[in-house]
Structures are given as C-alpha cells and as structure tokens.
Amino acid sequence: MAYKLEYHPAVKKSDLPKIDAKNRKMIKRAIEKRLAIQPEIYGKPLQRTLKGYWKLRVGDYRIVFKVSSASIFIFGIIHRKEVYSLIKKRIEV
Predict the structure, then answer these.
(1) CA distances from 54 to 3, 41, 75, 87 (A)
(2) Residues 40 and 68: beta-carbon distance below 8 Å
(3) What is the per-residue pLDDT across 7-47, written as a single tens digit (0 to 9) for each?
C-alpha cells in the first residue's frame, strides 16, 4: 500500500534548500522507495517527548514523520545535529 505524502510547510521553505543536490536525490529516493511503501519497516519510532512520531535515517539527515491511516506527514528533513530541537518547535505549533 502506497501512502499519500504530506509535508510541513517548513520542509520546502527551509529544509530542502539547505541540502546539497547529492543528498537531496538520496533523500528523495528513500522517501519514494522506502517511506511511502513501508514506513513501519524502514522507520524507527521516536521516544519520550516525540512518542508517536517516527524517523528515517538517510546519511546524516533525519526525516521525522507521523503515520496516519492512509498518509504520512513529514515534519522535517534536517541534519542530525539539529533535528530534534527544530522538530520539537514545529510539532508544538
């Protein structure tokens, strides 16, 4: 079953422009081939304050997402150094 992908507005405005073309291509492939098809197999559930959310690791980047019945909402595609501090701000709003 392929899930419908939805993105937080900040993903296209601030996350993707910071990523170089090589990594962007790798991330796009991972989203299309792994995340959209079987998120529970490739993703890893987050804990503590981010319980209910998942992450997919692609190189040094993390894709943080939430799975609903037929869609996946992607909250961020951010470098591993700053991902969790930025994601908490996006989720709280």
Answers:
(1) 15, 11, 10, 11
(2) no
(3) 999 999 999 999 999 999 999 999 999 999 999 999 999 99
Pairing of strands 71-79, 61-67: antiparallel
Specify the amino acid at residue 45. P
CA angle 38, 39, 42 (to 5 degrees): 90
Query: What does the pLDDT read at residue 93?
Result: 60
Cα 2–chain centre separation: 16
Helices and strands, number each (H, E), in the chain:
4, 5
Q: Does position 1 have pLDDT exceeding 90, yes or no?
A: no
